[in-house]
Amino acid sequence: MKVIDFLVGFSFLVLAYSQFLVAFDPSPLQDFCVAINDTEVPVYVNGKFCKNPKYVTPEDFMFSGLNFPRNTSNQLGVNVTLLNVNQIPGLNTNGLSLARIDYSKYGGLNPPHYHPRAAEVLLVLTGKLYAGFVTTNPDHRLFSKILYPGDVIVFPFGLIHFQWNVGKTPALAIAALSSQNPGVITIANAIFGANPPIKPGVLTKAFHLDKIVVEYLQKQIWVNP
């Protein structure tokens, strides 16, 4: 009986572990798998097909121009330049992506959002940022700090986080994410900018807002960072 109990318990453990593994990018089984868009193969895969190694070049592993400032003259005062497998094919199967984040002075905001497939490490290069993340139900604990050049903060996998420029000058940060395709869901955009719109009654009750306010928010133009 004890053997049966052990096998049942072990089976559940293996199943749970396997579910954990498939939630992340697959481990590479070769030196590299440079991504190539092969439109001739009618099969959808979660990732990219590999270029023939004979035709791989150094350019497949690099990107130029991340040192240039980006335009932050938008509603949020922020510009996120994401470098994933689409910009650097050599990132394929390595479970990594990178982002340059420019913040305008006087309140540039990377609004509350989360990455469904990645954790994030943020390094502040210039400026002064108020940054933080919120834990899941039921606690909703806020972990936040004022960050200065050289400071690093971690945003755990899948948690809502944000950065806000609280300095008097433009700010710049570099983010590393633990997926070649981390994805991003900006909370306000997804809720009030859904297409087609979510029925106002749902948002009125969920956010304790008047229906007029909800309908007003749904008519706004929601900018993606």
TrEMBL record:
<comment type="function">
    <text>May play a role in plant defense. Probably has no oxalate oxidase activity even if the active site is conserved.</text>
</comment>
<keyword id="KW-0052">Apoplast</keyword>
<protein>
    <recommendedName>
        <fullName>Germin-like protein</fullName>
    </recommendedName>
</protein>
<dbReference type="InterPro" id="IPR011051">
    <property type="entry name" value="RmlC_Cupin_sf"/>
</dbReference>
<keyword id="KW-1015">Disulfide bond</keyword>
<dbReference type="GO" id="GO:0048046">
    <property type="term" value="C:apoplast"/>
</dbReference>
<dbReference type="GO" id="GO:0030145">
    <property type="term" value="F:manganese ion binding"/>
</dbReference>
<feature type="binding site">
    <location>
        <position position="120"/>
    </location>
    <ligand>
        <name>Mn(2+)</name>
    </ligand>
</feature>
<dbReference type="InterPro" id="IPR006045">
    <property type="entry name" value="Cupin_1"/>
</dbReference>
<feature type="binding site">
    <location>
        <position position="115"/>
    </location>
    <ligand>
        <name>Mn(2+)</name>
    </ligand>
</feature>
<feature type="domain" description="Cupin type-1">
    <location>
        <begin position="64"/>
        <end position="215"/>
    </location>
</feature>
<feature type="signal peptide">
    <location>
        <begin position="1"/>
        <end position="23"/>
    </location>
</feature>
<dbReference type="InterPro" id="IPR019780">
    <property type="entry name" value="Germin_Mn-BS"/>
</dbReference>
<keyword id="KW-0732">Signal</keyword>
<feature type="disulfide bond">
    <location>
        <begin position="33"/>
        <end position="50"/>
    </location>
</feature>
<feature type="binding site">
    <location>
        <position position="161"/>
    </location>
    <ligand>
        <name>Mn(2+)</name>
    </ligand>
</feature>
<keyword id="KW-0479">Metal-binding</keyword>
<dbReference type="InterPro" id="IPR001929">
    <property type="entry name" value="Germin"/>
</dbReference>
<keyword id="KW-0464">Manganese</keyword>
<feature type="binding site">
    <location>
        <position position="120"/>
    </location>
    <ligand>
        <name>oxalate</name>
    </ligand>
</feature>
<feature type="binding site">
    <location>
        <position position="110"/>
    </location>
    <ligand>
        <name>oxalate</name>
    </ligand>
</feature>
<feature type="binding site">
    <location>
        <position position="113"/>
    </location>
    <ligand>
        <name>Mn(2+)</name>
    </ligand>
</feature>
<keyword id="KW-0325">Glycoprotein</keyword>
<comment type="similarity">
    <text>Belongs to the germin family.</text>
</comment>
<keyword id="KW-0964">Secreted</keyword>
<dbReference type="Pfam" id="PF00190">
    <property type="entry name" value="Cupin_1"/>
</dbReference>
<feature type="binding site">
    <location>
        <position position="115"/>
    </location>
    <ligand>
        <name>oxalate</name>
    </ligand>
</feature>
<dbReference type="InterPro" id="IPR014710">
    <property type="entry name" value="RmlC-like_jellyroll"/>
</dbReference>
